[in-house]
Design goal:
The protein is mainly α. It contains 8 helices and no strands.
């Protein structure tokens, strides 16, 4: 059985995502489109998806993303893992002090400045805008090595 604190965090995540989707415009039709997608085979959210989503849906995506990072941090009890095992520490460091609104605005600004880049993943935009600038030289080196070793993004 999962400890109470961790179970509470998981419950909050599920509730928040459910509320976000329930209040989104067109959520019913979008929910019907994704009902058959397996959780471990979820396609990447790209800028083309982002631009066609409501602000509530965008906020739900971002809230879910940062909540999962918080859950990961809580699960590890604050212990950092090496980059080759997890990028969560890099993400947490990158988002330190950043609001959901700032993330959404940065993605919107990137999409407006790069209208041809509709296939770029939203998480890549967040990485480039928030995480990468806060990484040390060693962390960048470790991320690059992990990526080259096949630990990074897979297409």
């Amino acid at each position: 059985i999962m400890p109470t604190k961790k179970r509470s965090i998981l419950y909050i995540l599920v509730l928040a995502l459910g509320l976000g989707l329930a209040t989104s415009a067109g959520a019913e039709s979008r929910a019907d489109q994704v009902n058959d997608i397996k959780a471990d085979q979820t396609p990447a959210v790209r800028l083309s998806h982002w631009k066609s989503s409501s602000v509530a849906e965008q906020n739900s995506f971002l809230f879910g993303f940062v909540t999962m990072l918080g859950l990961e941090k809580e699960w590890r009890q604050g212990k950092e893992l090496p980059v080759k095992q997890s990028l969560a520490n890099c993400w947490i460091k990158g988002f330190n002090g950043v609001t959901i609104q700032q993330m959404r605005e940065a993605i919107d600004a990137y999409a407006a400045a790069h209208p041809e880049d509709t296939e770029r993943q939203v998480v890549e935009v967040l990485w480039i805008g928030f995480v990468q600038p806060k990484l040390s030289a060693q962390e960048r080196k470790d991320v690059a090595a992990a990526y080259k070793a096949g630990q990074g993004r897979k297409k």
